């Protein structure tokens, strides 16, 4: 009986580790969380607005990051019927689940900065 329980616990642990690994893979990199955080501050943002607000990112890298976020169902890309044509991006409902994670990272970052300044 205890062997069965241990196997179930191992399976659950393995599943949780895989889910954690998937999450890290999905959000890894220098820019993805930054982009998601910027998009969470407004309903939609145009490419140009993102480029201006995500300080230090090149247009090529921003384009690549946005494509990956769209492929992973975290953002939507809308081609606007304007002249000239503009493209805007928004978080999906699925991506809004990352907001508590991002807020927790921000809170940790603030505390960490204060801790470092105390030294």
Automatic annotation (TrEMBL):
GO molecular function: DNA binding
SUPFAM superfamilies assigned to the protein according to its UniProt record, in alphabetical order: Winged helix' DNA-binding domain
Nuclease in keyword set: no
Lineage top rank: taxon: Bacteria
Residue ranges annotated for the HTH hxlR-type domain, each copy included: 13-117
Pfam families, alphabetized: HxlR
InterPro entries noted in UniProt: HTH_HxlR, WH-like_DNA-bd_sf, WH_DNA-bd_sf
Entry keyword set: DNA-binding, Transcription, Transcription regulation
Matching Gene3D superfamilies: Winged helix-like DNA-binding domain superfamily/Winged helix DNA-binding domain
Keyword Transcription: yes
Protein name, UniProt field: Transcriptional regulator
Source species taxonomy: Bacteria, Pseudomonadati, Bacteroidota, Chitinophagia, Chitinophagales
């Amino acid at each position: 009986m205890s062997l069965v329980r241990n196997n179930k616990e191992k399976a659950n642990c393995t599943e949780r580790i895989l889910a954690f690994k998937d999450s890290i893979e999905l959000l890894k990199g220098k820019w993805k969380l930054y982009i998601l955080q910027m998009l969470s501050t407004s309903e939609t943002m145009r490419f140009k607005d993102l480029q201006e607000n995500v300080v230090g990112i090149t247009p090529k890298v921003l384009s690549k990051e946005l494509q990956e976020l769209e492929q992973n169902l975290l953002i939507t890309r809308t081609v606007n019927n304007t002249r000239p044509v503009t493209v805007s991006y928004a978080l999906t409902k699925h991506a809004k689940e990352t907001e508590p994670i991002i807020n927790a990272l921000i809170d940790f970052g603030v505390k960490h900065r204060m801790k470092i300044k105390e030294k």
